[in-house]
Amino acid sequence: MQHSLPAIVCCLLFDFISNAFEIEPGFPTACGISAFPRTFKYDATRMKVPATPNSWPWHVGLWPQRAGYFPFCGGTLISDSLVVTAAHCVHDAIGCRNTPFEGLIDMTITTDSALYVLVGAHDYTTADLSRQLHRLQFVVIHPNFTEKFEDKGYDIAILKLAHRITPGKLGFL
Prior knowledge:
Blueprint: H1 5-20, E1 59-64, E2 73-77, E3 82-85, H2 87-94, E4 104-106, H3 107-110, E5 115-119, E6 132-141, E7 157-161
Antiparallel strand pairs: 1-2, 1-5, 2-3, 3-7, 4-6, 5-6, 6-7
């Protein structure tokens, strides 16, 4: 049986992460199902259109304390305290170049600038009561990731939030 490289990487990362953290109770079994009704937008078949507010509540923004007012990278919630994102986003935020990262990286001591995950925001330029800003506690970067191999399937990282997101505010947990 032949498996694709991304599937193998995901299995290896989830095996590693499950040994690093206790998987949270209530881990979703049905991914990508929003509590908000989906509507067909004809314009979306021809051009870029704004998403329906809060229709993708598992999408998050990565926000380093030192880098401005808006998130610079995105990620996806895979539980109420775990996010999957691109390794280069975390690597850039840490600020070290050509440094191999192995195992669990404690973000509270690794960098002088905190890295946050912005959850529940539809428009980053406006205030919204459902937004939640969470500091990262730990990061696991794929062990084969390097800046020069971003196109080889290893550009992936798992982020552990310092605190779980507040259930119910986002419409899917």
